Every structure is written in C-alpha cells, then in structure tokens.
Amino acid sequence: MIRNPAKMDEITTIGVVGAGQMGAGIAQLAAVNGLNVWLLDSDPNSLTRATKTIANSLQRLASKGQLSQAVISDALKRLHCTTSLKDFHSADIVIEAIAESEVAKKNLFVELDKTTKSSAILASNTSSISITRLASVTSRPSQKHLQVIGMHFMNPPPIMKLVEIIRGADTSDETFSATKTLAERFGKTVVCSKDYSGFIVNRILMPMINEAFFTLYTGVATKEDIDAGMKLGTNQPMGPLELADFIGLDVCLSILKVLHGGLGDVKYAPCPLLAQYVDAGRLGRKSGVGVYDYR
Ligand code: CAA
Question: What sequence ranges are listed for the domain 3-hydroxyacyl-CoA dehydrogenase C-terminal (predicted)?
Fold first, then answer.
C-alpha cells in the first residue's frame, strides 16, 4: 500500500494522541483554526482535565480580545475526546504527544500505521527522539512518499510562536510542505531541522538548563540568583531553573540523556542534582515541587 500524503488543502481532520499539556494545547490550536479534532488518551481523567485546560485557555485568550465567543463555541464543537484509535479513521494527520519514551512512541506508530488511512501524515511532537527511528517501524513501501515527520511545538502551544519541523532521513517533500502549511495555519513560524538528537531548540536550550543545575549543584549561587541573573541579565521570560520546572524535570533529564547518547559528547551528561530531583519525584510544577516549591 503506497501512502500518498494528504495535501494541506485536504487536511480537515486531525488526531492528537496524549491529552497532557502539549496534546491539549495542540488540540486547542487545531480546533480554533477550523479542524475537526479527535483528542485521544487511554486515561479518561486526562481527557477531562485537558478539556478544562482548553476551555480555560480559550477564555484567557477571549478576555484579551484575541478570540470571540463564537469562535470558541465553534472550536469546542469541533473538539472530540476518545479513548479509541478507531476514531482516527478519518484523520488526515495525527500528531502524537505522549511521554518522551522511544519504546512507547514506536509502539504507538506501529498502531497508527495500521489504523489510519493510507494518506494520513503521522507526526511526532517529540522533543528529541529520532524521527528516522520512529518512521522505521511503519510500513514504507515507497521511501519517496514517507509520511512520518517531527512537528515539535513549544510549551505552552497556544502562546509560543514556534514550531520546529524535523524531516526524517526519508520524509517526503509533500509531507514536509503539508506539515509546514498546517503549522502556519496555526499562526506559527516554522524552523526546519535535520534529524539529529535534540534538533535545534533543545540542543541549545537543554545545555543551558543543565549548566544552571551545575551552577546550583556546585554552590556557585542560589536558585533565585541563578534565575534572576539569566532572566534580567539576558532578557528571558523565565530563569533556566524556573523554566526547567515548567517543562518538567523528568522531561529535561530524558532529553539530556538522548542528547548525551545520540551526540556522544560528555558536555550533555545530565547534572547529578537534576537526576536526584527526578529520583525523588520532584518533577517541577506538575508534581507541586521541583527546584521550587509550588504547594
Ligand atoms: N493559554 C492562553 N493564554 C496563556 C496561556 C495558555 N496556556 N499561558 C499563558 N497565557 C497568556 C496569559 O494570559 C498572559 O497574557 P497577557 O500577557 O496578554 O496578559 C501571558 O500568556 C503571560 O502569562 P502569565 O501572566 O500567566 O505568565 P507569564 O507572564 O509568566 O507568561 C509564559 C507565561 C508565556 C509561559 C512565559 O513565562 C514564557 O514565555 N515562558 C517561557 C516559555 C518557554 O520558553 N517555553 C518553551 C519551553 S521549551 C519547549 O517547550 C521545548 C521542549 O521540548 C521542552
């Protein structure tokens, strides 16, 4: 079965896998921009939480005059939650935003390859894992038409202006072009990366966050001073430790491990303090405590 990729003007329905922060944000963007959305999670409670997060986010945007109540009401009508992959039968593109685990993502891609229609684009919101390796578990009778691609949104997706697109070794031009056009329809600016660990953003961001942990670990400065130094000294919206808590310390650790393993340079080795926080369940804002205490 040759998979001829959906063209942008044919993309009307999207499947999003994973109803965490990223999946919910991507589903919101798609619904607001006129797509029919199926948001899938195996946990119904995550879907309930995601629906609330989306409704809150839409109201925040409405309160600033960026969205009308009519647009919000239409968007919410287009948003469907499901626990079954069968509901992706009409999806023109699927974006997965599940946990940052290569094994879990590969298992999902095997299933998506079987259950989606042959023209569907299969995209991953992975922050660092190889698109080429994810694509390798799908059927690809014609490398020319390979429809697997990285579509990496930044957190929070409704606010951040960037989408990083990653072409696997064999991703087709048609797939790239349709994915880029979709990101632009969402109002995002696109940058394109080759498929090497961490791509552009995390390859540069994570060493900074890791260095902030080493700065704390070796007692150079307090967490507050490290963050204030970088926030005020380099005009960033959040200091690196605060940002790590926002992203999730477990996510930062896993990205650093991918960078370290994939690029083979000791400069990416995760700081022991970061690893210890994760071992202790201090995962950042989502667990109530990370570098800072949010309880
Ligand atoms: N939905 C709608 N609006 C939202 C929102 C959401 N989910 N989150 C924030 N906002 C809006 C707020 O309404 C507010 O709008 P106004 O300024 O117009 O009033 C604005 O965004 C700022 O929000 P807050 O006042 O609540 O908080 P803030 O000023 O601290 O901003 C932030 C929050 C936008 C997250 C900002 O701190 C920021 O940009 N931080 C850096 C985020 C960043 O770097 N993200 C990328 C991380 S790397 C990544 O994602 C890649 C990876 O793979 C790990």
Answer: 198-294
Exposure pattern of 8-26 as b/e (b: 16+ CB <10 Å)? beebebbbbbbbbbbbbbb
Short-list 200, 294, 289, CA closest to 250: 289
Domains defined along the chain, listed by start:
8-194 (3.40.50.720), 203-286 (1.10.1040.10)
Token digits of residue 80: 């469907």
End-to-end CA distance of the chain: 53
Q: What is the per-residue pLDDT across 235-268, written as a single tens digit (0 to 9) for each? A: 999 999 999 999 999 999 999 999 999 999 999 9
* 202 in active site: yes
What is the mean predicted confidence (pLDDT) over 35-44?
A: 98
Contact 231, 223 (CB under 8 A): no
DSSP, residue by residue, 98-164: --S-HHHHHHHHHHHHHHS-TT-EEEE--SSS-HHHHHTTS--S-GGGB-EEEEEEPSSTTT--EEE
Where does ligand 1 bind, in terms of residues with CB under 6 Å?
57, 60-61, 64, 127, 154-156, 158-160, 201-202, 205, 237-238, 243, 247, 251
Do 94 and 112 form a contact (C-beta atoms < 8 A)? yes
Burial of 173 (0-12, 13-18, 19+ CB in 10 A): exposed
pTM: 0.93
CA 243 to mean position of chain CA atoms: 15
What are the CA-CA distances from residue 166 to residues 80, 87, 126 (Å)?
28, 27, 10
> What are 94's two structure tokens?
């699927």
Amino acid present at 172: S
